[in-house]
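Our collaborator T.R. sent over the components below with a one-line note: 'Predict the complex.' Nothing else. No constraints on interfaces, no templates requested, no preferences about which chain binds where. So this is a plain run: every listed entity goes in together, and whatever single assembly comes back becomes the starting point for the next discussion.
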Amino acid sequence: MFAIEANGQTIEAKKGETILQSLKRAGINVPTICHMEGLLPSGTCRMCVVEVEGFGSLVPSCSHPVTEGMKIRTNTPDIMTTRKTIIDLLLSNHPDDCLYCARNGNCDLAKLAADNGVRDRSYQGERIRRPKDISSPSIIRDPDKCILCGKCVRMCDEIQGVSAIDFIARGSKAFIGTAFNQGLNVSSCINCGQCILVCPTAALSEHKYVNEVLQALADPDKMVVVQHAPAVSITIAEEFGFAPGTDFDGKMTAALRRAGFDRVFDTSFAADLTIMEEGSELVHRVQNGGVLPMFTSCSPGWVKFVEEFYPEFLPNVSTCKSPQQMMGAIIKSFFAQKEKIDPKNIVSVSLMPCTAKKFECERPELGQDFVADVDYVLTTRELAELFRITGVNPAVIEPEAPDTPFGERSSAGKLFGASGGVMEAALRSAVFLLTGEEMKDYKIQALRGMEGSKELRVKVGDLEVGAAVVSSLGQARKLIEEIKAGRKDIHFIEVMTCPGGCINGGGQPIGADKEAIKARMAALYQIDSDDQLRVSHKNEWVQRLYTEFLGKPLGHKSHELLHTHYDKREVLL
Amino acid sequence: MPTVKSVETILLDHPGAGRDHLIPILQEVQESEGYLSQESITKVGRALDMPSSKIFGVATFFNMFRFQAKGKNHVMVCRGTACHVKGSGRALDMVTKALKIQPGETTRDKVFSLEVVACMGACGLAPVVNINGQFYAKVSPMKLQRIIEECREKEQTHANA
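Returned assembly:
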C-alpha cells in the first residue's frame, strides 16, 4: 500500500493495480465502456482517461498501473470535454430509435451520455447499414447498434473459449461478425447469451417469444402450462426494483396465474427427477464399467459445446435430458393422460435464466411424435416484460403455492440454479441410494461459491468418488484438456456454461455485478437451509411418478421420455 | 501460373507454427489457391489452434486477402494517390455498377472478379487498371466500360466456339 493523490485528496493504492481500481475503492467514479472486471484491460474505448501530473497526454486509467506519489485528476474541463467528444462520436452513427429499442430503460450508452451531459447530437456520422442476424433461436445481433467496444468478443473468447464472433474488416468499415460473416445459427455459438449481458447497447439481445406466449394465453382451446427454473424466482424481483437475492417464488406463481397460465409447475421438481435418473446412471456406469468420468447434461450451452469441440467426449455426457426437457416430456405424456387432454393442445412454456434453452427446446430429437417437449422458452427478462404487458405486478401480490403434481420440489432441486448445486444435490441422494443412510449434514461447503472450478473427493458407501464442478466453458475446456492428458481421478463432473451457474445466466436481468451474483447465490443457499425437504429422493411426487407411470429410474419408459442422445455437430470452429 | 500446393503441404512447410505464422501461411494459401476458402481457413485454424472467426477477422483486416475464387477476368483498379487524383474513384464506381460486385467479390458467372490495389507503380499512366496482367492506361469510366464489354464479348465468342 502506498499513497497517491486524486483530485487533491490522498488515497491509498496497491502495487500492481490500475489507476481505475484505486480510484474506485476511494469512491471516485470514472466512466468506462470497454472495461471488464476480472479480465486484462483492453484500453480501447478511452472513456476512462484521467490526467496524471507529468504526463503529456491523458492516460487511460483502466490499463495504467499506479505508482507511488502519482497525482491524478479525474474531472478537469479537459477530461470532461474529451469524454464528451468520445460519446459524441459514438453517438454520431448510432440509430435514434431509442423508443423502440430492446434496451430502452437500461442502455449503458444512453446512461453514459446522460451522466456526462451529452444532450444533443454534435456530429452526423455516415451510417453503414448491416442486416440484423435473426438466424439464431436464442440471440439476435443488430450490428447497427454496435459501438464496437469488443466486450462480447472478449466474453466469447476469454471466458467461454468459444470465439464465435470477432472483429471483421478494418477502420470505419469494421464490425463484429462470425467467421465468413454467416448466420449465428451455423457458427460455433453455443447460445449462452453471456454476450448479451456485457453488451452496452441492444446490438445483442435475446430472441423474444413473448408475443407467441401471449397468443397462446389468449387461445381458449389451448391449455398453457408453465414451468419456472430454480434461478428465475430469485432474480425476477430485480426487474421490479428489488435488491438482488429477493425470492419471489410464491409471488411469481400467483402472478403467473393472474397472467393467465393454466398450470404453474416448478422445474426444480424435474431437477429432483434428474437427480434420480442421473444418479442412477452414474451408479450404473461405475458398477458396469461404463464410460467415465460422466458429465452433467443440464446446461444446453455446454452440450452444444461438446458436440462441436469435443465430440469424442459425447459418450461421457449423461444421456439425461435437462430438467426443462424432462418436465416438458412429462407434461405432454403423464400430465396430458391424467388430464385427458391431447398433448397437441398443451402449450408448454418454460421460464429460464437462459438463452440456450431456446435453442434446446427446438432440438428435433427432444419430443415425441412430432410434438415438442417444450414449446416456448422465455428468459427472466421476457417474463418481466410479460408481467408488464399483462398488467400483473408480482411485487404486491399474495404468494401462492404451485400446482400439483409437479409443484413439489426439494431444496436440492432448487440448488440447480447455482454452480455446484447439481453436484451437491446428486451427492445427497447418491449417499442415500448406495448406503441407505442420510448424510449427517447436507451442506457441502466445498462445492459452494463463485470459483470457476471446485473439486471434492468423497466416500459414498464403499466408493471413493472424485467430483469436479466447473462453471464457464473456459474452465470446462481446461478440465477436459487435463482429462485428455491422462487425469483419471474424477468420476463425475458438473458443468454449467455460465460463470457462477444459472444465477448468472444469459437470460437474467442485465447489469448485475459480482456482488449481485453472490447475493443471488446466497438466496438459493438460504432457501436450502430453511427448507424441510432437502433431498431429491424424498420428493413424494417424484416417487409417485415412478410408481404410477415411469416404473424405475433408467427403466424403459424413462429411456423413452427422459433420456436423449447427442451427435457430433459440424460447425465452423 | 503458380504451382498449386495443398494447404496441408503449406502447413508442413511451417512445422510447429503458432499464431504468429498466420499471415505468411494465409499468403501462401492464397498464392496457391487464388483465394482463402472456408475449407482452407478451417484447416489452418485447426493446425494453429485458432478459431476460424479470429482468422477471418485477421484476413479481412488486409485488402490483399480475398474469399471468393478469382473470375476469368481479374480486374485490378488502382486506388493509389496519383490514380485517386486522376479520378480512379469514378472508374471503380463504374466497375462495381457494371459488374454488380464489390471489391473482393466475383460475379456469379465467374467471368469477372474485382480487386482494389494501392499502387501498381505506374503513376504516369494514372488512372491505371490491370486485367489479367495487361495494363490499361488513363482509363476514364467510359473507356473502362468499353474494356469490360470487350472482355465480356470475348468470353461469349469463346463460349460459343
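Summary for T.R.: The interface with chain A takes residues 38, 41-42, 45-46, 51-57, 60-62, 67 of chain B (CB under 8 Å).
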